[in-house]
Amino acid sequence: MNSKLKIGIALSGGGIRGISHLGVLKALNEAGIYPTKVTGSSAGAIAGAMYCNGYSPEEVLKIIIETNYFKFMRPAISWKGILKMESVGELFKIYLPHNDFSQLKTPLTVAATDIRKGKVVYFDEGELIKPILASSCIPGMFEPIHFDKKYLVDGGVLNNLPVEPLEGMCDFVIGVNCNHLPEESNIKNMKSLIERSVIMTMNFNVYSRKAKCDYFIEAPGLGKYGVFDIKKASDLFQAGYDEACKVIEENPSILELAKKPTQTQTEKL
């Protein structure tokens, strides 16, 4: 087992589909693979922050299922969005009370989009919660987040698999995408047409970075789930877990990344 390798994991955005990341992390941990650095966009930023703070994947799943996420949302009386993402910050303060990147047990980088300059912005120090909110701020649905003298929206707009902050920092990079689209021969209505087109755009964004990953994990068919389909949380978790187990079985070389877990990590498995 190698304890010296630096392993980076990049987690894509994808709404509630991001719960599948937790299943992937569980499978990797069971195999003795623990990231030394995590990056994430949108849902990947949320899952990454909770995991990097020391919550086990199962604990995060339980929190998501038991927490009424939507009760924290407030209408945005603005032409910039329907809902205010900032009100969700009160929820994150419960589970990330220190609100500080430096207090995370595993280093995290969060990607957001500067809507004025049209550039990706990465956050890895200072205040934690607002960058997470900004990274998850779906344009049109949520009002942009004003932070660090920038107007920020969802990181997935320009970078839905932020592997760049891991380049030169990690010996191996594992990319995880939660938006695989099943083949669809019958587009039923305008809603399904638009949703499918948006996911295709997101996936093009992801696949353009796939070559930067040493290993790429993508549970099949998750694109069929709605962005807010919380009732499917357990199914999404299981799908991520099953696919990661399959990738590990089919690529035994990945076990070279395994290292001896700490006592805390052992207790959580």
UniProtKB/TrEMBL annotation:
InterPro entries: Acyl_Trfase/lysoPLipase, NTE, PNPLA_dom. Pfam families: Patatin (PF01734). A motif (GXGXXG) lies at residues 13-18. Coiled coil: none annotated. GO terms for biological process: lipid catabolic process. Transmembrane segments: none annotated. SUPFAM superfamilies: FabD/lysophospholipase-like. GO terms for molecular function: hydrolase activity. Signal peptide: none annotated. Keywords: Hydrolase, Lipid degradation, Lipid metabolism. The active site is at S42 (nucleophile), D154 (proton acceptor). It comes from the Bacteria. A motif (GXSXG) lies at residues 40-44. A motif (DGA/G) lies at residues 154-156. Residues 9-167 form the PNPLA domain. This is NTE family protein. It comes from Algoriphagus boseongensis. The lineage of its organism: Bacteria, Pseudomonadati, Bacteroidota, Cytophagia, Cytophagales.
